[in-house]
Amino acid sequence: MTELPADPTSHLYQRHRFPAEIISHAVWLYFRFPLSLRHVEEMLAVRGIGVSFQTVAEWAGKFGGEYARRIRRMSKGAFADKWHFDEMVVSIKGKKHWLWRAVDANGYVLDALVQSRRNKKAALRLMRKLLKKQGIAPRVMITDKLRSYGAARNELMPGVEHRSHKGLNNRAENSHLAVRRREQTMKRFKSSRQCQRFVSIHGPIANLFHHPHNYITAAQHRELRTASMETWTRIAMPTPA
């Protein structure tokens, strides 16, 4: 990951009654764990911090979005060259939507896009967004049997190897679990905009704290977790004058 800019977030906290430590902790709780806004409100109240769940929601949108943007800038170019694609159904006000998602070979979320269709046009939209943000095409893309992926790849990335097999795509399918748990906690998303905003913020923050357990010791995992928290602190805390 690249280095952080010199003066990251000091301007963000101007005219806010609560300090950066409390705001960033509330945002971290909300996006790091499957908690509702009222859960975060109560956890802060136990620590003597009187904040309403509406305020937590405002912090999640404003500060969570900025933290996610900073993590994305740090992560650009650091992902594996094998991309997994998948889509899951999200019911919003009784209408079926599709959450399209791409992750790399290590399980890091590349991007997610809420769309009302499950066709070639929707697949193209996700791939164009990925190519624009990553600045590079993958070496291999892995999908399920949905033909829309192949049609979109032929138009946009004809030189990329495409492996289409249901059993190869568990990594992308598993990445949906965190959003599915949050969907249950929130008793379904209220709008496609709310869902898109959540997944756009949740993905980068989840990446920062994602440490594959395979082939590492418990001590190494603790070191990685500590490094992630240090990075979070640099992202969220204003630089001293």
From TrEMBL:
One GO BP annotation of this record: transposition
Classification via InterPro entries: DDE_dom, IS_Transposase, Transpos_IS6
Keyword Transferase: no
Pfam families: DDE_Tnp_IS240
The organism of origin for this protein: Mesorhizobium kowhaii
Swiss-Prot/TrEMBL keywords: DNA recombination, DNA-binding, Transposition
Protein name (database record): IS6 family transposase
Any GO molecular function: DNA binding
Keyword DNA-binding carried by entry: yes
Domain DDE, residue spans: 82-210
